[in-house]
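Hello,

Following up on my earlier ticket. Below are the three sequence lines again, exactly as submitted.
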Amino acid sequence: MLHASHLWLIPALPLLAAAVGAAAPRTARRLPVALALGAIIGSFLLSLAALAGALAAPAAKLTANFTWFWAGSTAVRLGWLLDPLGALMSVLVCGVSVLVFIFSTAYLRDDPRLGRFFTCLSLFVAAMLGLLVANSLLLLLVCWELVGLASYLLIGFWFERPAAAAAAKKAFITTRLGDLGFLLGLLWLFHATGSSLFYDGGAGVLEGGALERLAATTLPGGWTAATGIGLLLFAGAVGKSGQFPLHVWLPDAMEGPTPVSALIHAATMVAAGVFLVARVFPLMAADQGLGGVPVHALTAVAVIGSVTALLGALLAVAQTDIKRVLAYSTVSQLGYMMLAVGVGAWEAAVFHLITHACFKALLFLGSGSVIHAAHHEQDARRLGGLATRMRFTYVTFLLGTGALIGLPLVFSGFWSKEAVLHAAELWPVSHLPFLAGLAGVVLTAFYMTRLVSETFLGRARGDGAAHAHESPRAMTLSLAVLAVASVAAGWIGTPAWPWLQSQLTGAPVAAHGLGEGLGLMILSTVLVGAGIAAGGWMYAHSPRADDRAPDPLARRFPGVFAALVARLWIDEFYAATVGRLLRGAAALAAWLERWVWGGLVSLTGRVAETTGEVNRAIDEDGLNTGFDRASDGLRDAAQRYSRAQTGEVQGYLRAVVVGLAVLALLLVWGGIR
Amino acid sequence: MSPLHLCLALSAALFCTGLVAVLIRGNAILVLLGVELMLNAANLNFLAFWRFGPGGGEAGLVFVLFSIAVAAAEAAVGMALVIAVHRHLRSIRIADANRLKG
Amino acid sequence: MSLLPWIPVATLAGAVLALAAGARSAAAARAVAMVTALFGLLAAGVAAARFTPSSELVTLVDVPWIAQLGIRYHLAVDGISLSLVVLTAIAATAGVLFSWTVAERVGEFFALYLTLVAGVYGVFLSADVFLLFVFYEIAIVPKYFLVAGWGSTRREYGAMKLVLYSFAGSALVLAGLVWTYGAGGAEGFSFGALTEAAARMSYGENVAAFGLVFFGFATLAGLFPLHTWAPTGHVAAPTAASMLLAGVVMKLGAYGCLRIALPFYPVGFAAWQMVIGWLAVAGIVYAGLVALVQRDFKFVIGYSSVSHMGFVMLGLATGEVEALGGATLQMFSHGVIAGLLFAVVGRMVYEREHTRDLVELEALPMHRRLPGAAAVFVLAGLASMGLPGFSGFPAELKILTGAWAFHPLWAVGAAGGVLVAGAFTLRVIQRAFFGRFSAVPATAAETPDQAVVPTRLTLPERLGALLLLAATILIGLKPDLLLDWIMPALQSPAFHFAASRAVP
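Thanks for your patience. The regenerated structure is below:
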């Protein structure tokens, strides 16, 4: 049993490992690996203890709050929260992390930057765990940013590859676009309630008083503050969880090493958006009962989730890269989870999140095993025939596939998808999410059958596949454990024994037996069967002959297939609109800087210079001319008068005599007296 | 016509002769001679007033003695100047020594 | 006996000594500069350790100076000025460390550098408007010589633009203050006297005088569209001067706005508030966009400074105590981070590679040639993007909170600026350090002229980077360290203008 005030230890261990690993010299390659493994196992045990504590009192929100900093009179408070949701997720994240870490030690054994890889992984796990046990939207945002950073570092781990560097940047910026909404939602929430704590003994933002206030605050157009905040926070989830329209980064993120794809871009980080919406569910649902609200926050979630579930499944159909198929599948499955939250069944969403984490991690690690064995060949067209060469990987991959497409009764995916569809069926607002979900079921079965057939069946169509061998023990061990989990994880939430749901909601959920949902189960089983049959008929029945043969689907529906291959031109659309807009704005700003503001400065300079020129002209041509002319005249006059100075003494004397004579005459005649 | 008037008339004639020489003659030595004539005309006046004038005392006589001494000095300096000018310009014509003209 | 009042004088004395020592040997001048900077750091540290936060300005020295006009040599300190003095001490010390390799006219260089630092210290410590203004002018003049004498890229142009803008700004300030002194019939130049004088002005006069004083100071703070001196000036300046210009001198303007313009003319402020807020938001986004398309590494940093100072101005524009505290925190934070970024570009990269062109750098395996610089820049870049764990995060958070409370659209615009900041920072990190050339695997043979010999950072560089990084991380994790000084100071009646005004 772990007390809430000790929860910080769970993220602190990997963080410490990351810090020490980062500071360790480059030569010590093994040290970060050992540290990371030790830390994650420690965190796993702590999470189990936390789970035990949480399950002892599922309805109680055990918190440990503290003040981060005082901003004058108001404190910015953070805290840790111990409840079944966070604790279960921690166990899940730690568990998957342990397996992925073990897998990575073999997968990246020869990489010169192995130490750095594990340092980044530790940082990621620390941030992810912090996100799960945070009792404050602000702390959640902090961790949210840090998982984004770790994701950036890991997608761009092989930054020598331009595609990886570009994908890392794209992922970071796209998710940050969503984070913008998250940040604004946080600001709004903080402004409206003065707190960012989820639970604070009645004063938290997810507790009665604050929720009532938020729902009662109306804005122009019938919106309530709760709706606005909910939608803004959901924008963050859209970015992080690869929901339409911000899903474009997730397939590109497959440029990262495969264990990263398994851990971050399938099992954990991308599910953080779903976790966030589940965590703040009371807030999202606060406007539910109100009339006059144009769009309820949860309705938007359901719509986006349905669109994403269908779109992801459609796009997965035409991909040839194994990891990209799985990536679009992840997008689609995340759509299912959002759909479930949107229709109000957040516990079903979390259930699907948990099972999905297990089987999608398994599938990614399985694809990693294939890629590793086939010398980094990940195009399904050049693989094939691996069923015999990599029997263990094949079997576990099949188990994962069974879970993903929801083969009935045994596999985990069946039960969790059932819970999602059941909730969607009962949604009073619209049946579209339910129908989208059913369509997705067919498509999922179809594209997974296609993937398995192309990769494992037929004969080897490339050098990589022809020389493949089973992967080392560290990899197969992880696959085995995950395969067991993929099958068994569903048994904790079946309609007959809804243990998980009752623990999550903190209230007993009535077991409704098989009778109530039986029709739905039969329907979805039929749909799965149809998908498998179609896929098997097209791909397994007559495997492709060589890697250049056209896809059977392309032969039948060339137009549709081309559109799907081009990913419905969504990336191109963004490049042409958002990308061009941003570049245009930047160019405009640079132009303004250069010609308008810079031009103003130059103009001022020019004006000053011109004034100087004018002054010079007045001086030289006006004032100076006058002086010059006067001086010239003076000189001329002087020259003229100086001619009287003949230098002849006698001339002077004559003048003297004349002068004396005149003087004498004046005196004599009395003129002067 | 009294003796005083006769003396004064002679003196005036003498002075005018000297003055004309100074003003007209081009030769520096002759100009100096003219100056001497004028000085002596003045001396003659002193003597005439001493002899026939109304006042007593010997002032006129003393002035003449001074004047003769000064005239001697003047003649010496004048001659020295003329010699210097001649050395410099190879001429003793007064009109040639016009360096100070404007 | 506190050492604080001696800082400006001692730094000026250090400047004279450095000049004298420079005549003998460069090493002596460096030593003098280092000792002077360390003295500042020590004095600031001691003062910080003994500081008791309060809402009062604690007088350090107060003697009559020009008695006829009521001008006094009055130094005083409160939480705001102490934070900025500490920032100046850190930036000045790091600046000396990153100037270790200056080779020409070392004595003159450090003399000018220390004069600038002394002026900055003086401004932050002055409690007399006239004295503050004198120190402000002392800080402006050496900038010109530092940039024109030791700079790079179009340095005469940059230096002249810088100085003309500074003087134009200070002329506006002087005009406004003298007008207030005369029209309001002030007794002297103390803060209180001028505040009362401003209160006696008519509404129109008050609004106009605020405009003069605020925009005069804001010119130096780089408020859009008065910012154009900043990027060119920063780029042209030598490393240490860029660090000081962006790190500290821009703060002089913001400090002037906070300490003088806002408290003196609350009425005028209310009239100008919307204009200032929108200009700040425009500056954040606009400078970020311009940074996105620059080719010169240093210009990117220069524009990022303008963008970050926009946050300070936004905090000021709200007039709320919360956001004012955030603005002060952001001044500190940006001072440290900008110093670090300029140190990497100017000292670590440019002096070794002799280029700042991102296209040329992209073609070099920079992360292997300069692994230390790459590591420092990545950390500094993350800090600059406002990631949690670094000082920018709490500062921007506080400013955004205040902005949202006052005008949500401001917060939306500024948050958009955060996104752009992320974009241009990542772009420059990838281009400058993890460029295309790195496509060649580490083990592949390389042509001799591209041979990679990793260059280690020198000891002064390591110390300088460590000092700045420690400051930003420490404040990022524990913003209380500064906020505990800043927030009580903002409780002073001088800053009550926001509370007394009815918020619409």
